[in-house]
Write a sequence for this structure.
């Protein structure tokens, strides 16, 4: 599918298949095309090329109200002069359902988001988290065949965001909903998604489950976007059972994922190693090790963040349950990494 705005290509030949009952995330930086894709699925935008299908039914040119999707916006879009129940009932009233049926389904929808007893309240009497639940109930009450969420947690504080991540996943799974969720927050995506697509400049760069995308990124963009990492330039020395990479920091062995492209000897490459993958010891490791000193330490209780200075460069190293916090810059220690945590990327 391709979508343009004038000379700007917002979506460039995007090809996706989302499974029934799947919580699928569209992830990427601002302007990457993820909201354009969501609005195209909802019917607010029509692509210039390609098709959108719900099952076997093509809906590319079908208006939004005939697609039976539930949309949840960043701003919640609740009517302040309505009660909670009236807000939730709006979509059912538009469909002209009988009043007893509307009352029953509104009560069921509020119960599903744990807002029983709030039907008579006004929107301004609710907290931000409660308003978010009401917006979700309004999207659910029409029993959509697809739930569309456009950065629904961005207006909540950090504690509420964590709580609602769990709630949204619970509700979608209990209801058997197919959900498509737009965010730029990788933690949100990692904690909720079944699968995700990373977009950049209107193109899909990688599709996969959270573990695969985080641990086996296919490009520098994906690796960098999905969290902090150490990029180390290198050259492939040999490829037998696993690639051996020469770098300024030393020699590293890597383990390639099952479907990865095997690099050739002599090729330049880029290693991506997550800060939490390193292990610190006072004795030299047998392989994949770097000698250096801790130049800076940020202690966070359950974790310490180190700037680890080695002759060939400086590494970011995160240590859970930290033991090396008191190691000053005058003590040599060693950082090592498992081959499974060394990701080989094209330069």
């Amino acid at each position: 599918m391709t979508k343009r705005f004038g000379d700007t290509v917002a979506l460039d030949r995007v090809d996706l298949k989302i499974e029934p009952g799947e919580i699928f995330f569209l992830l990427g930086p601002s302007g990457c095309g993820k909201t354009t894709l969501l609005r195209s699925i909802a019917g607010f935008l029509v692509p210039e090329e390609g098709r959108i299908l719900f099952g076997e039914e093509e809906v590319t040119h079908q208006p939004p109200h005939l697609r039976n999707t539930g949309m949840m916006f960043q701003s919640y879009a609740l009517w302040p002069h309505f009660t909670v129940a009236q807000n939730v009932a709006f979509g059912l009233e538009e469909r002209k359902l009988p009043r007893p049926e509307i009352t029953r389904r509104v009560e069921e929808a509020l119960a599903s988001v744990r807002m029983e007893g709030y039907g008579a309240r006004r929107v301004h009497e609710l907290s931000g988290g409660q308003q978010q639940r009401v917006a979700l109930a309004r999207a659910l009450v029409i029993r959509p065949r697809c739930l569309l969420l456009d950065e629904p947690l961005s207006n909540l504080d950090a504690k509420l965001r964590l709580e609602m991540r769990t709630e949204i996943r619970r509700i979608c799974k209990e209801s058997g909903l197919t959900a498509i969720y737009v965010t730029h927050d990788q933690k949100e995506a990692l904690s909720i998604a079944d699968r995700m697509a990373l977009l950049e400049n209107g193109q899909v760069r990688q599709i996969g489950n959270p573990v695969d995308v985080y641990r086996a990124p296919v490009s520098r963009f994906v690796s960098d976007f999905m969290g902090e990492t150490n990029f180390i330039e290198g050259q492939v020395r040999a490829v037998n059972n696993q690639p051996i990479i020469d770098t300024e920091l030393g020699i590293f062995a890597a383990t390639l994922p099952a479907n990865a492209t095997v690099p050739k000897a002599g090729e330049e490459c880029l290693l991506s190693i997550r800060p939490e993958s390193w292990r610190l010891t006072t004795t030299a490791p047998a392989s994949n090790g770097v000698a250096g000193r801790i130049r800076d330490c940020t202690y966070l209780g359950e974790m310490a963040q180190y700037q680890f200075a080695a002759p060939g460069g400086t590494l970011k190293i995160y240590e859970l349950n930290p033991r090396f916090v008191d190691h000053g810059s005058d003590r040599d220690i060693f950082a090592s990494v498992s081959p499974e945590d060394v990701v080989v990327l094209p330069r």
User: Anything to note?
Assistant: The chain has eight helices and 20 strands. The chain has a mean pLDDT of 92. The chain has two domains: 3-220, 228-346.
